[in-house]
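User: Structure with iron/sulfur cluster, tokens only please.
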Amino acid sequence: MEMDEIKYDIFKDGALVNGVSIKKILPCIATKGRIRLTMQLDSKLEGDVIPILASKYSPGKISLIPRKNILTLSDFDRVITFYPDGKVTMNNTRDQEEAIEIISGIMEKINESYLESKDGGPVGEDLSQKLSKIGPLAIYNCLPKTNCEECGEVTCLAFAMKLLSGESALEQCTPLSESKNNGCVNSLRDLLGEQLMKTLGWNG
Ligand code: SF4
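Assistant:
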């Protein structure tokens, strides 16, 4: 629908983004009765901000195009796409208020990502490469592979799949805390890196 741009001031002193404008609202193609929106952040998402933001979500929820620096996040029961010029699209949304509530939470993570990129945080190219290698089998190969069920899953592979989709956390695999499985933890660290280990629920 045609509309005047609506600007929302979310933060006063965010490190990178403070406000967001809703530029366009259209009916959602995926779900009848819902809307899809085009929004514009008040700052570009340049440098390593997008890959660092990607690493704050479970790998199963994201799709990153490194060459174009475009991130698609499948979370909150919808698809949200971030572009380096600060454009954001979101589908399957109830109304503008819901869109602003969700984007505000993500803007906090964007500001954290920006600060981390300035602090010499994980380099975007490294993160993009890591993310491209992470799948259920890669995770499974780093687990104890005993199918002991202590995590609540019948097999280690089932646990790996739930981990990637964000439904399980690494710490639920309690055998990983045993010293005999230090090699597994090291392999996971090599595969995922510190940020993704944290994102996937490892505090050890
Ligand atoms: S607790 Fe760990 S080792 Fe046991 S089944 Fe789950 S993932 Fe496998």
